[in-house]
Design goal:
CATH topology of the largest domain: Rossmann fold
Number of strands: 15
Distance between the termini: 52 Å
Shape: elongated
Oligomer: single chain
CATH class of the largest domain: Alpha Beta
Order of helices and strands: EHEEEEHEHEHEHEHEEEHEHEEHHH
CATH architecture of the largest domain: 3-Layer(aba) Sandwich
Length: 376
């Protein structure tokens, strides 16, 4: 049994991080009599002049509904850097970090983060240091788990934005484009688009064409609906082209919403407005589901450590929290299945993904294909 464990949060912040921290501390202290050390600013906090804080029951009192993380976080630094928009892992200073952990009396780590954080955690495991991962990301793109906390809150925020845009779009007969986060996956756009009654959903997994978008806008116009709501994931790709970046030097995704809005206005003559949600999806209080999931993950992570089940990540599978190898969790990202249930449902109810082949068919032909079972 470990006497003292460390807790850190890495990568982008997400609603539910404090719920997970709280659960780790309360379970470790109350159930297993362990002491807890919070490591500030992700793995950077155990390099050089270390930055840590003692965590007790009072430290985590009242943090359940708070957004962000009381420990701070980093998505780049000595352990991970961004090159051409991708995370790369330089020669990690694992030796220095392990020496500092020994000095601090930390015997095991709970690392809360996305694939980058968990990939670093796996390197500690390979060096023989006990570590357990907790999956966190609003993008819901981590392999080996059905859901990550932060995702549901992000969907709520995006759905509310679509609800609000719906009324103003209808009032002014406009096309409204909502750009949401998600990096190279379309989970947020797809879920929010379904829940928020979008007319067009553009995701990285299905390249779009402007011909198809214009056809959808015109079809709605002809049917008497003189407005159109479009939700687009930041990593959506036009057929034959690449992603759009707001920062070409660091290859930071963003700007696709404005690009699409400008082009639609030119092609249709309809007044078009674009809203970029950005970090609004990350900030603020987690919803009830993310509080619950973060709490469940945090408690299960401590139980796994206590039982010696290290080098693993806690994961939600079929409604049950299990542990999976860190190597499996970091192997690849989870993308939207273009033939999956949610995509099929969206098409069934008339939502367009603006795929090039959609431009070859009218609405009646699309209906015939759908009802004939040839859903692609």
């Amino acid at each position: 049994m470990y006497k003292q464990i460390g807790i850190l949060t890495g990568g982008g912040d997400a609603p539910g991080l404090n719920a997970a921290i709280r659960a780790v501390v309360r379970t470790a202290i109350g159930e297993f009599g362990m002491k807890c050390i919070g490591i500030e600013d992700s793995f950077e906090g155990i390099l050089g002049e270390t930055h840590t804080v003692n965590l007790n029951l009072k430290s985590v009192s009242g943090i359940l509904p708070r957004g962000g993380t009381i420990l701070g976080t980093r998505n780049r630094g000595s352990f991970v850097k961004m090159v051409d928009g991708k995370q790369v892992f330089p020669q990690m200073p694992i030796g220095e970090a392990l020496a500092n952990l020994d000095i601090l009396g930390i015997e095991a780590l709970v690392a809360i983060g996305g694939e980058g954080t968990l990939a670093i955690a796996e390197q500690f495991h390979k060096r023989g240091f006990p570590v357990i991962g907790v999956p966190k990301t609003i993008d819901n793109d981590l392999a080996a788990t059905e859901l990550t906390f932060g995702f549901m809150t992000a969907i709520d925020i995006a759905t509310e934005a679509l609800d609000r845009l719906h009324t103003t779009a209808a009032s002014h007969d406009r096309v409204m484009v909502l750009e949401v986060m998600g990096r190279n996956t379309g989970w947020i756009a797809l879920h929010a688009g379904l829940a928020g009654s979008a007319d067009v959903i553009l995701i990285p997994e299905i390249p779009y064409s402007f011909e198809s978008i214009v056809r959808k806008v015109q079809a709605r116009e002809n049917s008497g609906s003189r407005f159109t709501n479009i939700v687009v994931a930041e990593g959506a790709i036009e057929t034959g082209k690449s992603e759009i970046y707001q920062d070409n030097k660091e290859m930071r995704l963003g700007g696709v919403g404005n690009y699409i809005g400008t082009q639609i206005e030119k092609l249709t003559g309809k007044e078009t407005r674009t809203v970029v949600l950005g970090h609004l999806q990350r900030g603020g209080s987690p919803n009830a589901f993310d509080r619950m999931l973060g709490t469940n993950f945090g408690a299960c992570a401590v139980r796994a450590l206590a039982s010696g089940d290290t080098g693993k990540m806690v994961a939600l599978q079929a409604g049950t929290v299990v542990t999976v190898p860190l190597s499996e969790a970091c192997a690849n990202i989870k993308t939207v299945a273009i033939g999956g249930q949610l995509v099929r449902t969206a098409r069934d109810i008339g939502i367009s993904f603006a795929a090039p082949k959609e431009s070859k068919m009218g609405e009646e032909a699309m209906f015939e294909v759908r009802t004939g079972g040839a859903l692609n």
